[in-house]
Amino acid sequence: GAVVSQHPSRVICKSGTSVKIECRSLDFQATTMFWYRQFPKQSLMLMATSNEGSKATYEQGVEKDKFLINHASLTLSTLTVTSAHPEDSSFYICSGSRGVNSPLHFGNGTRLTVT
Amino acid sequence: QKEVEQDPGPLSVPEGAIVSLNCTYSNSAFQYFMWYRQYSRKGPELLMYTYSSGNKEDGRFTAQVDKSSKYISLFIRDSQPSDSATYLCAQREEYGNKLVFGAGTILRVKS
Does the CB of B42 have a partner CB in chain A at under 8 Å? Predict the structure, then answer.
């Protein structure tokens, strides 16, 4: 199967600080990775599409300067939440696929709590 | 109208029951259909992946896609308490790379 590893699984930070979340495809190369946000008892909300070697594409309403995405290699994408505020507290999940006609595989998510 | 409609439940069934989970969608361009299972505080896990209309079976799970009525189903046979989770349907267009998710159905299998 396709394995996506996400780290850290949980992080607590203070308001105003930045947090970096890593997403790695362990057994496949992911040209494209996706970052989602999930609120309690709600479905996944796509934040941005991360393309290796180019700028990420952000969904409407997602602040690109707040949620910095870097996809420096075919196996690693990172999401940095800058100047975090309590309203940024959420469950962040990344995903990747082997190719255009392949399904998405998800990491186990990162629970961010901003105090 | 939402692109994908899915009853959030919760759906409670006794152990051993056959479970039927469903989604309806409005975008006729969807060609790829998926079902994911998500346990609490975990990422979604791919259960079934189908292309266009038809049935697909994998162990206790059967996925059905009826594109004419824009209706997809996931059946779980001999349900177990370990099947208790949220089940998300997801759809994608032929040449698109974005998934459109349903709201997810909470399933509770009681022993």
Answer: yes
Task: Tell me how far the alpha carbon of residue B13 is from its chain's centroid.
Answer: 17
Q: How far apart are CA A15 and CA B78, in angstroms?
A: 48
Could you tell me which of A101, A77, A87, A98 has the C-alpha nearest to residue A37?
A87
- What type of residue sits at position B102? G
Chain B CB within 8 Å of residue A71 CB = no
Q: How far apart are CA A106 and CA A35, in angstroms?
A: 10
Distance from CA of B2 to the nearest CA of A (A): 13
Nearest chain B residue (CA) to A42? B103
B32 touches chain A (CB under 8 A): yes
User: Is the Cβ–Cβ distance between B85 and B100 less than 8 Å?
Assistant: no
Q: Determine, for residues B44 and A106 on separate chains, whether the beta-carbon distance falls below 8 Å.
A: yes
Could you tell me which of B57, B90, B45 has the C-alpha nearest to residue B72?
B90
At B16 the pLDDT is 98
pLDDT confidence tier of residue A42, bands split at 50, 70 and 90: confident
Closest by Cα among B11, B35, B53 to B101: B35
Under the banding of pLDDT at 50, 70 and 90, the label for residue B67 is: very high
Q: Which residue of B has its CA nearest to A51?
A: B97
